[in-house]
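Objective 1b: paired records.
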Amino acid sequence: MLYVPLYVEALRTRPRLVFWLATLTQALIWLVVPLVFYSAPPGELPQVLAIGRHFPLNGNFGPPLAYWLAEIAFRLGGLFGVYLLSQLCVVITYWCVFALGRAIVGATCAAMAVLLMTGISVFTVPTPDFGPPLLTAALWAVALLHYWRAVMQKETASWYALGAALALILLTSDAALVFFGLIVLFTVLTARGRAAFRAVEAWIVAGVLVVVIGVHLFWLMGDGVAVALTRLREAGAAAANTAAWLRLLGGLVLAHAGLAILVVRASGGPRFPAPAPEIARLPLDPLALRYVKVFALAPALLATIAAVLFGQALPIGGFAPLLVLSGLAAIVAAGETIILHHQRILGFAWTGLLLLPVVFVPVVIVLLPWTTGTELRIAQPAAAMGRFFAQSFERRTGRRLAIVGGEAATAALVAFAVPGQPSVYFAADPARSPWVTMADIRKEGAILVWPASGFDPQPPAAIKARFPDLVAEVPETFARPVRGRLPPLRIGWGMIRPASAPAAVPPR
């Protein structure tokens, strides 16, 4: 007797409902979890907010759109607003994959492609950590959908949506030229792509994008190309670059671990010949097959090669935009008839990939400090740190703390937690914080912070070189939410008094 679970029947009859239930459930989970369990923002989010606070147009952090949006969301809704923006990017990405898949492989298989994406995001894309990669993934998904509609389905209005998405990617990601170049090459090298440029709308969009590319190149100006050429000429560069590239490709393969689990469970094998439900896929247009292959594989190859040439530890533009079409590519590779073996186990596996990370977050926050002595960024006492340094500065100077500098990650975390959001000065790389000058620091005063392993008050060499007269204080110890086997959390610090500070306010 053929057993067909409810979710398989729903995939066949109500694929859109399945898509929305799965997508919104994941978004709701990762909107609530960080608000409940994180005592500090995840990943690079404090630095994203530190950069976005001033709505900069230039700096060596790359195109600024993601930083601007993060700051707008933070001003409107605090961390809830930023986490909501992150999940909105995820929902947009999934919707575009579903819409594109519906046009290429049918609605049922498109919903399956999105379900497979859960197995990728769990291991690779921490969705609460908003930044350029997550925004780029959403925009890239929009661009891929509307390119298909404009070129393959001849919907002229989609040219404008495509142009807007590509323009916003150019304002968001260092990898924009990789994505834009692939779109151009695919258009030029396919007959249907060349024919699409008979539309006036295509030329209008192309003209606007040429202007935006000029702006993008302005943000990329610097010695990056010279550094890349120097690295290529170094002795032993070929072997080192190859090893680095293989490590990046290995990281991309590991990013698909959850997807692989689902595919292996569904594929069954010769030892399991039991009847299984079949799902028919729409016959593929040969150009559609080429489209999915090119845009699922080529961005990853080019972004990893560029990362090696420029000496970066991660692919140019981050992992997230390189994984947008992975689920759809797996469906395309599965053949015209997809047989779902082990349906009950498959359902449990998908649910586990969705829910287990939610359970693991509080468990890991509690257990890791006791077992491995690992410090988690999301478990740092950000509120206590911000309160201590803000009050120390105000008591001694009678002014509100306006500038926090020092080691980048620590300064950004402290500034995030200080009421009024002071400016951040990256002491090791001042070009990243052009909104603060040495004159500003002398006028307004500042708190400089850095991680300290003991009670030695000496600042790091980079801070000492930039502030030779700094008198460092005894490092301050902060109580961790869960200490376990971790050493005490000590933050070294020093204060630069404002040029015309009033008398210190006596402590109450």
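Objective 1b, second protein:
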Amino acid sequence: MRDYAIHTLKNGIRVVHNRETTTKIVHCGIMLDIGSRDETQANQGIAHFWEHMAFKGTRKRKAFHILNRLESLGGELNAFTDKEKILFFASLRDSYFERAVELLTDITFDSIFPEGQIERERNVIMEEMAMYFDDPEDSLQDEFDRVVFAGHPLGMNILGREKTIKSFRRIDFQRFIKEHLDTRKIIFSSVGNVEMEEVVRLAEKYMGHIPRMTSRKVRKGFTGYKPKEVVLQRTVKQARCAIGRTAYKLSDEKRGPFYMLTNILGGPGMNSRLNMVLREKRGYVYSIAAQFVPFTDTGLFVISFGTEPSQMVKSISLVELELRKLREEPLGKKQLAAAKEQMMGQIAMGEENNVSFMMMMARNLLDQGRITTLDELFSQVKDTSAEDLMTLANEIFKENKFSYLMMEPRAGHGHSQ
């Protein structure tokens, strides 16, 4: 069991720390409760662009000094943007912890968005978009978000659109930050062999002076999901498919058991039902996965795979058959016990990883106001019955509620059979 301590600064920023005495490396990050779903059509892609620009210059540092500050010590500085969060994070030897806290604070709160760097980074993001559209696996997921969350910010691409990326100026970043930054929704999270007193001292020293900020922005909830079928022609060799729909939100108590159901169906284990049926028995796919991603007000369930165009229809019917089985046949005692052991093993493995634990603490605090312990997660798994799973399967796996997205090779790009 990992223990942790929480401290709140006067400005509302929360500090959470897990002391790990068996490591020389400290992982820390500043997580903001801001993501691509907080954008509009007009400024689509600005959160991700801001994440890039944070490394391009602050009041006291140029881009080179930011990148060199931790890298020269063998450390790492990184960031990511998703639908609901931005995280700036660092990993390095614990003797340089203060350097990481100071630098992360600097790039998060003191970026100056130099115009010349904005121009340069525009091109970098355009390259990232081109690379991304070349990868059918990535673009399939995003295209599917657009199908499910049509006309809503959750359905917009995190990278933005060419038109919006070309339009951003310094003032746009400053305005977006001013409108969305809320110190009560900022977490500094760390894991490493550092005393909590020292973590608090450094957080007070570098973040204590940041003025309290509040945002009046309210996230637009998603309602009115309608199932759709979409076929896209792309320059791909393999046909790809995503099948799914909306699912449970973060605060729903069904979320834990539904993770388990998703895991049985198409989790990372090679023994998942979909993998056994489509890959092991028939060799139709190289990989197939089911995923459940909960958000603050809704969730997304999706199954994705790639196959030869001639096997697409057969593959889809096999997927539908597995979904039907979960709706109609309860798991046997042995199957249920095995599914629970597998789920608990995966959760425990995830908690072993210090970087993901650092992120998990920050995310939990922002989304739920508390950190879920390993024991709580285990007892949730243990308390789930075969009937519970069947009820969830009947709620979410209704065939007439699914959306389908097929990506087919353009004429002349498929494999000949």
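The mean pLDDT is 94. Residues 229-409 form a domain with the Cytochrome Bc1 Complex; Chain A, domain 1 fold (CATH 3.30.830.10).
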